Known about the structure:
single chain, alpha+beta, 2 domains, 4-stranded antiparallel beta sheet, 30% helix
Amino acid sequence: MKKIIIIIVALLGILGVASSIRTTGFIDKVPSSTGLQTKANEGKKVSEVKTTWKGFIDSYLKEHPDIKFFNPREDIKEDLKVRVVKTEYRNGYDEKAGHYSYALITNVYDEKTGELLTSSGEYKKDDAKNQKTEADIRQIAYQSLSEESKKTIINWKTAKVEEYKAADEHEVASKKGKADIKDKDTYKVTFSTTDDAILGTINVYLDKNSYEVIGVDFRN
């Protein structure tokens, strides 16, 4: 019986520690505190605001209406004057996600003592770096074609790139067989070939947001 009591007490102690640790985080995907501060120190400061602890909490909730986990420290007085510093750290290209990203780190300091009260970190897509040029789009489309098709293309580097959105049903050949691109925002890349007179041009369609190849027009 004593062993059972000891085990229960130990478990409660562990849960208590876990609970105290959770209060220092703000969102569900926060890097380790050590890694977070390293990124903050190496990153670029984008803003610094002086407010109160309550003002920071209210502002944070307004900026993150869909936040999944929010458990701020309760040992801090609402009227405590704080300094909120936001820093951006560029993570570079994320192979798994398939795009560039950056970490937005928020550090809150006691304005008087300089003590770090809490930190939060969130990863965001770096839209500025993820934007593709016409040359990039053209190359993605070209690389998606078979070697046989590539051999018939006259000059892939001069292929026409344009935005395209089909108002009616428009089926294209895709990896899964067929795909309807009706109402989809796409880029259409048109390659002139030596077989245009017989089969028509090779038209490749890319998703406008992800730049993934959706499919190719069926040829005659």
